[in-house]
Amino acid sequence: MEKRFIKKSGEELSLLGFGLMRLPLKAGTQEIDKAQALDMVDYARDKGINYFDTAYMYHEGNSESFAGEALSRYDRSSFNLATKMPLMRVKTEADVERIFQEQLKKCRTEYFDYYLLHNINKEHLQVTETFKIYEKLKEKQKQGLIRRLGFSFHDQPELLRQVAQKYDWDFAQIQLNYLDWEQQNAKEQYKILTKNNIPVNIMEPVRGGTLAALCDESTLIFKNANPNVSVASWAIRYAASLDGVQVVLSGMSSMEQMKDNISTMESFKPLSIEEYQVIDKALIAYKTSGSIPCTGCRYCMDCPQGIDIPKALAIYNNYLFNKSRNRPNYNFSFEMEYRVLGEEKQAHHCVQCGECAEKCPQHIDIPHWMTLIDEVHQAQLPKK
Fold this sequence. Notes:
Elements (H helix, E strand, L loop, with lengths): L2 E4 L4 E4 L1 E4 L14 H13 L4 E3 L4 H4 L1 H9 L8 E6 L7 H14 L5 E9 L1 H9 L2 H10 L3 E8 L3 H10 L4 E5 L4 H4 L2 H10 L4 E4 L12 H10 L5 H10 L4 E6 L4 H12 L6 H15 L21 H16 L5 H12 L13 H5 L6 H15 L4
Parallel strand pairs: 3-4, 3-10, 4-5, 5-6, 6-7, 7-8, 8-9, 9-10
Antiparallel strand pairs: 1-2
Helix pairs in contact: 7-9, 10-13, 11-12, 14-15, 14-17
């Protein structure tokens, strides 16, 4: 496993980190399939992964408990555990201490190697300042309860520049991949962090699986360039090829995905100029295919109207792909998938409140897409 040597601490981190956000689920439920997930943790450990990332909100609050169960079977000094202060849940100063103690208990640990202020944006920065959250966590770092203190970020470069300079950070975590390099201005965010000498952890390198299952034309471009590697491996290598990156997190949900990512990092080679050109060509094909850049992170949930927004967007994305490729029965396929979603979770319940769009890290105009999804559905219904 490719490692990154951290000068400040003298330790080595596996370049590939296991993100515990999209663990395998039991069929038809949102419950973690512990048997499969534990096997994946064991395999990751055997192959040299020593960085595991969880959060208070992941898997409806169950990811940290799983991390505690899975990792407590190993020598605590043999792995790095990262979790996050859920700024969206902090309403009083007392919440900071309560949540932190709860996390220690759930994760079955006496300290966190890497601890982040989760998803800093303008609102959450105000919360941080009001309740002196950074100062409280720095005190915990002095007490040895936190080894490295950082933050995760899903906002504009202007705010990132302010946050990077306002506090003393050990690292930062940003969304970066070859689609978001320009689309979400990850390029500028990366430059801000490296200019301020803040080590970078990368999340969403495959954009929630989007860059592992591109449109047919993009997939063909990658396969023609190298038929022996997966489409996802191009995205993983893109993120890992950047200077200043210490960990690339992947929210792997199957052993197949894990083995593929590990094989990429075991024999890691930075991208060549020619390979960057391949990515550029595939990206142009993808951008013209008409898809919605949803990562399936579920930050938009729960919808007050009960709509399953990520699933509705995924179904519509499939429809757009099939339609753009003139695949037979693309309307019928849409209706079949949409019916399985269930009437109570469909887009026609949207009242355009905009609450989901405010939460979306990708800044997707979700109400707009809900309207379009419903229009496609209504067009398929029998005429009265």
